[in-house]
Amino acid sequence: MFVAMRPTATEVELLGVKGRILAEGLTPYEHRSAGGTLVAVVGEVGGRRPALMAALAELPGVERVTPINRPFKLTSREFHPEDTVVEAHGVAIGDGSLAVMAGPCSVESRDQLLETADAVAAAGATVLRGGAFKPRTSPYSFQGLGVEALRYLAEARERTGLPVITEAMEPAQVDIVAEYADILQIGARNMQNYSLLNAAGRVARPVMLKRGFGATIEELLMAAEYIVAAGNPNVILCERGIRTFEASTRNTMDLSAVPVLHQLTHLPVVVDPSHATGKRRLVPPLAMGGVAVGADGVMVEVHPDPDAALSDPEQQLDLAGFAALMLALGPIHDQVRAYRSAPVAAQAVAPITGRAVAPVAGQAVTPARP
Ligand code: PEP
Ligand code: MN
Hints:
By secondary structure, this protein is α/β, with parallel strands linked by helices. The protein is about 35% helix and about 15% strand. The chain is built from eleven helices and 14 strands.
């Protein structure tokens, strides 16, 4: 449940509400926004719900108490209506700009990483990616260079100015990854690794959480809830494809997840068409699709010589392919922004026919985001 405080509520009244929640063995989480101050009541409320709601509603300074039927609370739009903007090394994600995270699947050598970093930075990427610890389906596949790769990533950040994102696969890796990287990645295979989620919740670095290939949107949000509840509000979600009966792509990219997530949560949403499709040829169209449905960012694997890559050779773009994709993404993103801010005006001239479009009175055209 959420407790909405009156605009006139004092700090003492707010403390009174939090104290009452704590006295029940529950945890109060406060969020202040232009709409007022909300306190989320988090914990196992059980059969106490009706009595507790009534008791909280009676406290001084309380405007109303609203039950929340969804299991995720701190990640929900109800609790936090405005978009969360995540900052990493001076780059904002979720502020309406388009974040482009690009780089190799795995860091294979210093030269390979620096060459890729220079090229993606020149093409306009905003974040450098590169796997140091690699979750591989086969134990015989390349497992990553580990800490050596983290050092190359830090060097690439110095050189290009781009923040770096890389994966931590287990709680014991969280501190070392947080020491070198600007954003921690939690991979699809680890989306429900609760000790890893808790560990990522305790570091002062943003976390990008990838959707498990068998996870529903609600399960993704519950996993994000662990990180936020553990103390880290800077979470980015990533749709990277889910497993379906379709065998012609590595996974099925769930484009609907982007606007669904934007409705349910305030956290930024990134799409990863590389892992979603597993095929180089399909990466540009699905990256464009992700931007078109309103993603806050795109993650793309890029390698100077994809066919020789030590991991995911089929899905990495080469340097020229990435630069070409960047040229296509900008105008799509501009169009989505225009549509969001003024849905009808943005279409005053239909680009396909060139004819003027008169807005239909009463026509319900809603922006992609609430
Ligand atoms: C990755 O981004 O390096 C990766 C392994 O992706 P995923 O966890 O989505 O499979
Ligand atoms: Mn990969």
